[in-house]
Amino acid sequence: MDERTALIAANLATVRERISAACRAAGREPESVTLVAITKTYPAEDVARLAELGIRDVGENRDQEAAPKAAAVPGMRWHFVGQLQRNKARSVASYADVVHSVDSLRLVDALADAAARAGRETPLGALVQVSLDDDEQRGGALTGMVEKVAEAIAAGPALSLRGVMAVAPLGWAPDEAFARLAAIGSRIRQRFGGPHDPADWISAGMSNDLESAILHGSTHVRVGSALLGKRTPLG
Ligand SMILES: *Cc1c(COP(=O)(O)O)cnc(C)c1O
């Protein structure tokens, strides 16, 4: 094991311990939380190191970066978590298992079309990203639109409605943000969840706030810097 792999292994052990402790505190099973390693800004070699350490779920927020890494490290489950332009839908549908950041009816149409053309064996998973503070500038559907976007995802065969996703808005207490997301997720699950698509994922929690997210029912934590190190901002 090279030095970098050993460092990532130590970070991974710490993150898994945090997830376990948060699950114990919440009375949940650690298996009920999936760790999605966010590899943005880090090279494909780090994705391979994570694979060697048993990680299968990896996430990226830009197609330009994700597509070559997905090609370089086969066998991973790719989660797309960033704002997505409709003209990137074809590319993303060719390698991603699930898109966490679906926030408009137009994007649902583009992804459904792309997924249908991609000749996939399974539908492309989709989560509705919720703008918890109804700020239109940063990604996410306004709270009043969430059900419409979920309904559109659930309507066709090319996409599979997995649930809801959010990032805690700046300046909000994570507990407040994630409690609100849990309530929205529960409504979506009751309205649109079915035997094939239970729509029961809650994608919430990052390096700094995963404990709060798990307390409020997160099923998928998206962790980058706590695993791979602090990112230098892209120029
Ligand atoms: C970068 C990113 C993460 C991971 O953030 P960290 O603070 O590095 O854990 C999670 N979710 C999204 C949508 C991201 O863009």
UniProtKB/TrEMBL annotation:
Domain spans labelled Alanine racemase N-terminal: 11-230
Taxonomic lineage of the native organism: Bacteria, Bacillati, Actinomycetota, Actinomycetes, Micromonosporales
Originating species: Dactylosporangium salmoneum
Transmembrane segments: none
Keyword Nucleotidyltransferase: no
Protein name (record): Pyridoxal phosphate homeostasis protein
Positions where N6-(pyridoxal phosphate)lysine occurs in the chain: 40
This protein's UniProt keywords: Pyridoxal phosphate
Biological role stated in the UniProt entry: Pyridoxal 5'-phosphate (PLP)-binding protein, which is involved in PLP homeostasis.
Pfam short name (any one): Ala_racemase_N
